[in-house]
Amino acid sequence: MCSHYRENGGAAGQRGSAAKHLSVLLIVLALSGCKREERDFHGLPAGGTITNPKVREVPFVAGGSVPADSRPGPYEENAYAVSQGKTLYNQFNCSGCHFQGGGGIGPPLMDADWIYGSRPENIYETIAEGRPNGMPSFGRKIVPDQIWQIAAYVRSMSGLLRKDVAPGRDDAMQVRPQEQSTQKAKPVQSGIPKSAELP
Amino acid sequence: MPLTLASTLVQQAHTSLNPASPQVRLVDQLGTAMFVTAAVVCLLVFAALLWAALRRRSGAEPVADGRQERPMKTAVLLATGVTTVILFVFLIFDVSVGRSITTNPGNDALQIRVTGHQWWWEVQYRDSLPKNWATTANEIHVPVGRPVVFELRSTDVIHSFWPPNLSPKRDQIPGNENSLWFQADSAGVYRGQCAEFCGHQHAKMAFLVVAEPADQFEGWLARQRDTAQTPTDSLARRGKDVFMAASCVMCHAISGTSAGSRIGPDLTHLASRRTLAAGTLPNTRENLTGWIVDPQAIKPGVKMPPNQLSGPELLALVAYLETLK
Amino acid sequence: MTSLQYRYAAVVAALFFQLGCTRTPPQSDAATPAERTSTLPARVSPDTTASSTADDGQWIMPARNFASTRYSGLSQISSQNVGQLKLAWTFSTGVTRGHEAAPLVVDSTMYVVTPYPNLLYALDLTKPGAPLKWTYKPDPALASQGVACCDLVNRGAAYFDGKIYYNTLDAHTVAVDAKTGREVWKTKVGEYTKGESVTMAPLVVKGKVLVGNSGGEFGVRGWLTALDAKTGQLAWRAYHTGPDKDVLIGARFKPFYSQDRGKDLGVSTWPGDAWKIGGGGSWGWISYDPDLDLIYYGTSNPGPWNPDVRPGDNKWTAGIFARDPANGQAVWFYQWSPHDLFDHDGINEQILLDLPIKGQTRKVLIRPERNGYVYVLDRSTGEVLSADSYGYNTTSRGVDLKSGRLIAIPEKATTTGKVIRGICPAAPGTKDWQPSSYSPRTGWLYIPHQNLCEDVEGVESNYIEGTPYVGAIVKMYAGPGGNRGVVTAWDPIGRKAVWEVKEKFPVWSGTVVTAGDVVFYGTMEGWFKALDARTGRQLWQFKTGSGIIGQPVVYRGPDGKEYVAVLSGVGGWAGAVVAGGLDVRDSSAALGFVNAMKDLPQATTKGGMLYVFSLP
């Protein structure tokens, strides 16, 4: 460094070097202005999206309704929330019945078949209220914000979330393709629970 | 809230320069020796530089001739030689300290497994008899004068277990098992800290090591092995119902009840601990109430969500938790 | 004689034998001395008002008799003519989950129990086409479907004293009048909201209905309960974990091995109060010896599957109890798999026989166990006389006969945070619940089972009441050879396999063997097959509408003809991928079984049909 300095000879070399250093400094300052996501750890209130407090499971409203609120669910675009949802999904034993989306005691969550609907509000209601054929009710046990996180993760299991939001490959033994690269399965609402087929 | 016997123990300064175990004492000695040697060498080097800068010159142009070369070469060789010897001495010293710290302490050592979670410590006392196992959180009791072996694990990210008065640090790496051991030489309360950045609340992931005389330790351990008793007080009984009906059971275990989740710290003997939230708050009724209402205000990002309990439910719940000695 | 003369003689002898078979009345269970290689206990029939000779052509309990031989003395259908077997009639149950039950035949009526919603059908065998007499609907709780680990199966009913007894998924036991279909009593035996369910077929012994619970995957505390057959009132309940007074261990308890002796082992072999959620249900088979007056049955896996949180031997899970049926007092216990690491439930069938061993006739029970060994135990004391491997095994090296302990291979121990590969046998074991049969004519066991291995990673297990408590990610696949199923003929005296028939899918159905030397079983593709009991050669098969996981039965109809009946309708743990419509892209689904059964949906669809066959 020192010899290079001496070779370039005196004052002129000094000025060129200073300009280079200054521009590097400016770039660094500019980049550090990028803001990181401000997370509100107090979380979302019960039921409904952030702005629309009512949860409505079906679009069919007697007496007519205003144009349907087509706003996406609260965590559809939040990778952190979906990742938290995945952790909770395993810790709260959702994986005990639904495994990693393939199903078992409960129906699969990674396929296109949605018994009670695939919208975030539908999934929220399923988790909070339970369903008649064996889905327990978690309403008082899991706080609403966490239910929204789990609902968002459940949607990612069938590829319904964007690639940059859905989780990538996790550290546990690989048993299914990562949610990020799961082919989007266009939801079909069957209305028929697989477990109750009474004659 | 902490038991009066143990509260006579004094909390020591949280520093590795205040050794309370042979391990840290050895490292401290090594550190001091290196510091003193380095200080002396540093002074000598500065002195030589000063002498080189300030000595009078003979005025004429410097001439490269043999007369100045030989003393120069001798000086450099001497300095290099001394440095090499110093480094070798320290190498030997270092290796020997390292070996002393890690040699197996023998079969009568107490076995404790510490598992790092974001952002709390799961502490499990292990024994050859399964009914002698005990699980607690964030506060580790050890008997004075007896070696304790720690198995270090992690369930999520890399943490590092470091009670500086008692032991050098050792990482807890998920999927792996590390271990360290130490022996507390004097009774006291020693603070430890997570020493590997592990997320939002790495800074508030502390733990306490309480070194106490062997008989007090056995008493404490026997109490930790017990299941929680059903409270007799009606408010506390209501509080237990609140605990079972609310979201607490999803994450916390209380032995003797049907709450058995391991996501959060075991609460069976919560009232016997000195602090809450991994060393963040002293364990008092006010702090506990505030913590339950909104942990995010105290330790934002922690996994425990704010609660939706009503006032009377909260009071009953805290009354119940205070019975968990 | 020349070889040609030998052949003529053989043909003539066979002809005479066959004629003899069709003319003479059905043979007794006792074979001719030349053929007898073992004896059954003298009394095998229960005391009941229905006709109770050993070979009356009825089938009044799933195991056929208290010794659990599943052997029919009827020989109209034989290895010579079974090739002509034809479908006689069918009956659709209307339910399309896994059909594991054995149809019962009592007083010319056939009784069929379906999977959830656990309907009971009574079919009139005296009329052509066996029309429906009545249907009984117990209406089990809808939500109990959420706590059935392995499809919504039911393993059948038992007949006693004019009533049909069976269990419903939401942990109730019912007694139904066999003639009218009216409910006589219904008793709640467990709490499904805590994860308890009941899928097993009860056994009625000395006027008591014996019922065991399921829920080893839900942190349930296992038990065996006796209800009074007349009133449904609780007679006694023996838990399988906890203090001795709950386990009904008292003065009569004399376990053979030292590791099973001690006070309150059901507490001290667990940390803290883990025994309260420790599993050990008894959802499998019970046998009874009227001479020794002892019932024998096994206990399920300890919970959770992840062993890290339950150090110790975890008594009294994964073992076998001998108890006094009158009061439930334990007489002896043996633990197949102490501190089980692999979900190797110990609930399989045990066949009671008197066998010559080392020159003496010993009263034994034979158990083809989940952990990979065919055990022969002295049924008076619980001593292990032999334990021989009948499948590929990387988890243990055998059983140390001196200490009685399973010799585990430590490298395959599962633990949190580590992936252990090549665990054989997998969680369903070398054989799961599917029951084997025994022929006194050949002296061999006919064992339907599987050949599966698995990879397991232990994960944190959280007990949240009513939800699964497992703590493992599992992925199963075919064992060496690639065939996932096997039917083995096993010689319990020679202690080795005599012949084996490999199948593509696990053989999840039971077997039945007859005096005609025919073995019947079904495959998961839906083939109902007949094999020659002596050689294993396939003699006949019929493709039913759906995979078969049920227990075939053989009976004599009112017209004097011999019939073979089996339920077809795939499901159970092995068939969950079809019965539950699961997604094969997740290898861990259905506790890892889906990975081994990805091709099953191509081979079979759901169904629910009873098939009955006879000679034309």
Characterise this structure.
The complex is a heterotrimer of chains A (199), B (325) and C (616). By secondary structure, chain A is mainly α. Chain A contains six helices and two strands. The longest helix of chain A has 23 residues, at 10-32. Chain A starts with a helix and ends in a 10-residue tail after the last strand. In chain B, the strands form three sheets. Chain B has a five-stranded mixed beta sheet. In chain B, strands 4-10-9-6-7 form a five-stranded mixed beta sheet, covered by helices on one side. With 325 residues, chain B is α+β, with helices and mostly antiparallel strands. The longest helix of chain B has 37 residues, at 66-102. Chain B has a domain at 234-321: Immunoglobulin-like. In chain B, α1 packs antiparallel against α2 and α4 packs across α7. Chain B contains seven helices and twelve strands. Chain B has helices at 22-54, 66-102, 214-225, 234-245, 285-293, 295-298, 311-321; strands at residues 110-117, 120-126, 134-137, 139-143, 148-154, 159-162, 170-172, 178-182, 188-194, 206-212, 275-276, 281-282. Helices cover 36% and strands 19% of the residues of chain B. Chain C is mainly β and 616 residues long. Helices cover 7% and strands 33% of the residues of chain C. Chain C starts with a helix and ends with a strand. The model of chain C is unreliable at 16-53 (pLDDT under 50). Chains in contact: A-B, A-C, B-C.
Ends apart, CA distance between termini of chain B: 9 Å
Radius of gyration of chain C over all CA atoms, rounded: 23 Å
Helical amount among residues of chain C, as a percent range? Answer: under 10%
Total domains of chain C = 1
Determine the oligomeric state from the structure.
heterotrimer
List the SSEs and their pairings.
The complex is a heterotrimer of chains A (199), B (325) and C (616).
Chain A: H1 2-8, H2 10-32, H3 79-91, H4 94-98, E1 113-114, H5 120-129, H6 144-156, E2 188-189
Parallel strand pairs in A: 1-2
Helix pairs in contact in A: 1-2, 3-6, 5-6
Chain B: H1 22-54, H2 66-102, E1 110-117, E2 120-126, E3 134-137, E4 139-143, E5 148-154, E6 159-162, E7 170-172, E8 178-182, E9 188-194, E10 206-212, H3 214-225, H4 234-245, E11 275-276, E12 281-282, H5 285-293, H6 295-298, H7 311-321
Parallel strand pairs in B: 1-5, 4-10
Antiparallel strand pairs in B: 1-2, 2-3, 5-8, 6-7, 6-9, 9-10, 11-12
Helix pairs in contact in B: 1-2, 4-7
Chain C: H1 3-23, E1 71-72, E2 86-92, E3 104-106, E4 109-113, E5 120-124, E6 132-136, E7 158-160, E8 163-168, E9 172-177, E10 183-188, E11 203-205, E12 208-212, E13 223-228, E14 234-239, H2 244-247, H3 265-268, E15 286-289, E16 294-298, E17 319-323, E18 330-335, E19 351-357, E20 360-368, E21 373-378, E22 384-389, E23 396-400, E24 405-408, E25 419-423, E26 437-439, E27 444-450, E28 452-458, E29 472-478, E30 485-491, E31 496-503, E32 512-514, E33 518-522, E34 527-532, E35 538-543, E36 553-556, E37 562-568, H4 576-579, H5 593-596, H6 600-603, E38 609-614
Parallel strand pairs in C: 1-32
Antiparallel strand pairs in C: 2-38, 3-4, 4-5, 5-6, 7-8, 8-9, 9-10, 11-12, 12-13, 13-14, 15-16, 16-17, 17-18, 19-20, 20-21, 21-22, 23-24, 25-28, 26-27, 27-30, 28-29, 30-31, 32-33, 33-34, 34-35, 36-37, 37-38
